[in-house]
Design a protein that fits this description.
The protein has 12 helices and 8 strands. By secondary structure, the chain is of the alpha/beta class.
């Protein structure tokens, strides 16, 4: 694993490098002069879930590039003096990696996750946006759980294409757990758990306008569009996150 600059929030190391530095480190990893990059996002909901899910917590702790994906994370980190941030979304990292590889005139990319419909839409847009890159493979895993034999087959399919970057698009914490369980067998130089970015890039889910994202209110925009799916994150996890950070980092009930 690479040495990382990180602060801690609820026991999870979250990077404090800029996006530009993170991309420089990623390209160096792709060139093979540093260990592979395991990318994951930390938002209030995922940090809350990790407190009661030790496997997920371990997956976040083993990832060597965890970014603060959420204004709630950066705000609470500043409040308690944790050296976390700046805010980097999964979309930010996804686009920046592909843009950097496009400028280098080469890179092999694999998409693992989501539905075949979403993957087909991604393939069409990818060919237009990144003509210098090779879309070496796409794979939609079975819905729900799958057998060890099926998992080995899918890992083999991925490895046979020799990707530089493997994007994993499932719901959290399933995607991070899968990456942690399989990262020793995966040959990709970069493995990124980016979840909803698959849908955003495919166009099946609308992302908030840029001005909304810049103001840090993307969570509110998504909540208005998908209240049934997002209510637990915003109504349950958000206030719980604030309380857990306050209790752990300000009251000092637990070491940070």
């Amino acid at each position: 694993m690479t040495t990382r600059q990180a602060g801690h929030l609820l026991g999870i190391p979250i990077g404090n490098k800029s996006l530009a530095v993170a991309i420089e480190d990623t390209i160096i990893a792709i060139e093979g002069t540093r260990p592979p990059v395991i990318f994951a996002c930390a938002n209030p909901h995922s940090l809350v879930v990790a407190q009661s899910d030790p496997i997920f917590q371990s997956a976040l702790m083993q990832a060597n590039l965890v970014v603060a994906d959420g204004v709630g994370v950066t705000f609470m980190a500043q409040l308690v003096g944790a050296q976390v941030g700046p805010r980097i979304t999964g979309t930010d990292y996804f686009q920046a990696v592909l843009k950097a590889l496009q400028q280098r005139d080469g890179g092999r990319i694999f998409f693992f996750g989501s539905s075949q419909l979403v993957l087909d839409l991604i393939a069409k847009r990818f060919a237009i946006d990144y003509p210098a890159l090779t879309l070496c493979g796409m794979l939609s895993p079975p819905f729900g759980s799958w057998s060890d034999e099926e998992n080995r087959r899918m890992v083999q399919v991925i490895n046979e294409t020799k990707p530089d970057v493997l994007w994993v698009g499932m719901t959290a914490p399933k995607q991070e757990k899968w990456v942690e369980a399989n990262r020793q067998q995966l040959n990709a130089r970069v493995v990124g758990s980016i979840g909803a970015v698959f849908n955003f890039y495919a166009g099946t889910h609308a992302r908030a306008p840029r001005w909304v994202c810049r103001m840090g209110f993307e969570w509110a925009y998504r909540f208005m569009l998908e209240p049934r799916r997002m209510w637990q994150r915003n109504i349950v996890s958000a206030p719980k996150f604030v309380w857990l950070v306050f209790k752990r980092h300000m009251l000092g009930n637990v070491g940070g």
